[in-house]
Amino acid sequence: MSFIERQRGLTLTELILFIVIVGAAVAGVLSVFVEATRRSADPLIRKQAMAVAESLLEEILAVPYTCPPGATCNAVTITNRTATHALADYNGFTMTGICALDGTVIPQLSGYTAKVEVADEGTWNGANGRLITVTVSAASESVSLTGWRGAY
Questions:
Q1: Nearest 5°: phi and psi at 23?
Q2: I need a labelling partner for 53 at 20 to 30 A (CA). Which of 128, 131, 139, 141 fits?
Q3: Minimal CA–CA distance to 94: which of 67, 115, 123?
Q4: Which of the two residues, 139 and 24, has the higher pLDDT score?
Q5: Separation CA 32–CA 107 (nearest Å)
């Protein structure tokens, strides 16, 4: 008795057809990733904006609620940020191009803008309070952080 052994494997046609199908599927998935990346915000810009907003909010939360006795408090500007300020002095503060506390311009952040709003929020658990909103913008990204400060 003679047995004819059947060969196993793929034909060239089956292999080419498999490559075409897998190639089309990979191209479709990659086009979705490319489009999602193109429409998403640049994470570096968002992280830098968040770091600037956090730093500015911490700076504001560290100042006295009201002007200390004997001190002269004026509205905050880029050049007088190290002077003594009260919390309300930061209302309306704007920076186009981010500067360090001492007024030194940070060239890598020249395209960023920071704005501060300080609003009276009445009383909270018997203490006067103010709502602080810091908004940092760059390109099409904008980050807002909000803090609440009581008169303690």
A1: -60, -40
A2: 128
A3: 115
A4: 24
A5: 35
Query: What type of residue is 23?
Result: G
Integer-rounded Cα Rg, in Å, for the chain is: 29
Whole-angstrom Cα distance, residue 150 to residue 146? 14
> 3-state class of 58 per DSSP?
helix
Sign of CA dihedral 117, 54, 96, 43: negative
Q: Tens digit of pLDDT for each residue in 3-57?
A: 677 777 778 898 999 999 999 999 999 998 888 776 665 678 888 999 999 999 9
Predicted TM-score (pTM) of this structure: 0.70
Query: Reduced to 3 states, what is the DSSP secondary structure of residue 27?
Result: helix
Q: Is the pLDDT of residue 60 over 90?
A: yes
Q: How many CB atoms lie within 10 A of CB 88?
A: 18
The amino acid that residue 138 corresponds to is A
